[in-house]
Amino acid sequence: MTPHIRPHVRTAALALAVLLTAAACAKAEEPQSAPAATSTAGQQVVQSPSGTAGPTCTLQQFGGTKFDLKTATVGFSQSEKEANPFRIAETKSIKDEAAKLGITNLKVTNAQSQFSKQITDVQQLIAQGVKLLVIAPLNSDGWEPVLQQAAAKKIPIITVDRKINAKACSDYLTFIGSDFYEQGKRAADRMIDALSGKGKVAILLGAPGNNVTTERTNGFKDRVKEKAPGITISFEQTGEFAREKGQQVTEQLIQSNPDINGIYAENDEMALGAVTALKGAGKEPGTIKIVSVDGTRSAVQGIADGWLHAVIESNPRFGPLAFETAQKFLDGQAIPDKVIISDRDYDTSNAKDSLGEAY
Known about the structure:
alpha/beta; seven-stranded mixed β-sheet; six-stranded mixed β-sheet; 12 helices; elongated
């Protein structure tokens, strides 16, 4: 079922306050579907809690000591090369919010899409005396060396946009990001609609080894199986979340599966690579339906131009919510083990008018 549009959008601050107030009480149900904001206006919006909230963590439970964010050394570890608009917007959001809050000692690293480098980067940040770590993990596993060192010094870790497989409130504080399984389901809804429930679909898989790829894939497949038995997923290959790789895989796809009807790209960069491949093959806009996830300006423009059918947003502007969450934690408030944001949809009905809100 396509999510209902909210009649009003709360500000991120109010929504988080509501979430944290409920979070202090008890355990929450996962929402059945991610409500789509009518407009994020560039800002992340926290989903209103459904029922009661999940496990929480306080500074006392964590065993940490309060410090002043403005004067503390704070580390942000970016995972991927900033050729991807998502990563550019994400890093900018962290830097801009730190500057706005007067955080004077923010240290930013970039792992250049190398997991071993990201581990080294974060270990160096710990050695440099950071009091808070905000990490955009490249992979979900393999973080044990970092987690042990951070835990020994009681450094809270906030992960953004991808999860790490570890224990909240001891190994890390919280995860802030989207419901990736729900994104996959919503992408499937759009594909089912585009193909009237029948046809052959290819999946351009994201990079292996992280929860985003796994959950966006499972959500899509489960929804297709549930709602559209007439759709066959006839091709799957990783495009590694990269435009060039997405183009290469799509070139192979249209050779091996010339009768393909739809492409589900697990991020916009791969979708845009697919568009380049389709143009090179002489295809007309819209003959192969493309649905993707992210909400970059180029992808939203692709909808307006007729090449993409729909895009499910994944908002990268984590700065305000990450630092607000950290401050609430330092003030003694209970922080949920995950803070799930709402993501909108882009399609032909709103693409042109929404370009200014894409990144």
